[in-house]
């Protein structure tokens, strides 16, 4: 069955229903996987076509990014190849630029249109699933765009690992105390899961790595966590949040609550409490915002820019449109407070995707829709090797038991048996052998050596990490 994407015009639909899924993250992949299983007969007959539009050919299991950054898991095992898992779907590598749901068309740019310099393409659909996820919420802080490092993709996680080790190399080889101090100062902005877990894992890795440097000791490094509110990790509860602050400070990590980053111009992190830290590393993990594609649709949005949805995961007030995950404001039917919405996290996203997929099948078959209902079970967070916090089903855990629960839970949730086995194998080998402490920063510029040999100039590192 031809996907029939054409430039500048609306292609004719196939004989059956075309389900267009925008986004290949948690919701996009799990919804497509659910539809692929439930509509096996329809797909075989050609009555249904599932098209997934995604900028990357893989789904990233984001809870494993901190461990990938620390070198505990290989980067390729943090991602799930969509073409392998969704073998009955049409995978289009590209991005949706706008959606006209009144006409049931989406405007896309693909790798081919960018290569050819052609106009965006249009694709028609019968059912729309909007699951683009979220993007980093970046504030207009002077210098942040020039020197900040994100932590939302596997590329950013591995780049940050390489960067941290390179800073230790710089500090080990320089005779300038100012350069050494800046290289060994690491500032993380944002006290949520991403910031705390990334800081915990990387500090743990750097502390281990320092034993292989003759002139860099763990106490030479400054690790600073900046959080605008008065607590960190609110998902694990106030008590566990306070324990996390105590645990991090015990490791000589400077936790600054009710503090904001005001500037990082000229590689100097200036905080709202007046502190100034010359640094070559500013990691930004201060929240996310809805994907920009939502504003380029004719679908209803709430005051936070998320899609207004029903408890059945349909977009409120329109037909043939569905949404879940970070992009959707889904009513929390388990909450006693009226107007409550489900939290935009992986726990809800995976479960919503199953209900969403089932409801699309119910809709196509003329059956009643299901209501999404899931009481929040709790949260777990890793703070480095053998360290963690958890608040699950009312039980509070810390230390090794919480770290073990973190690994067990996420191993059970990572998609496909293939990935589970590979991750488990890597953890087992990591327990038998020493950590790998190699920086492969040159992978970010694979042609640099050849260009230099050919008479060109090596590319400049935008992060200034080398």
From TrEMBL:
InterPro entries assigned to the protein according to its UniProt record, in alphabetical order: FAD/NAD-bd_sf, FAD/NAD-binding_dom, NDH-2
Highest rank taxon of the organism: Bacteria
Enzyme class: oxidoreductase
A Pfam family this chain is assigned to: Pyr_redox_2
Domain FAD/NAD(P)-binding: 18-348
Molecular-function annotations in GO: oxidoreductase activity
E.C. no: 1.6.5.-
Keywords, in A-Z order: FAD, Flavoprotein, NAD, Oxidoreductase
UniProt record similarity statement: Belongs to the NADH dehydrogenase family.
Protein name: NAD(P)/FAD-dependent oxidoreductase
Organism listed in the record: Streptomyces xiangluensis
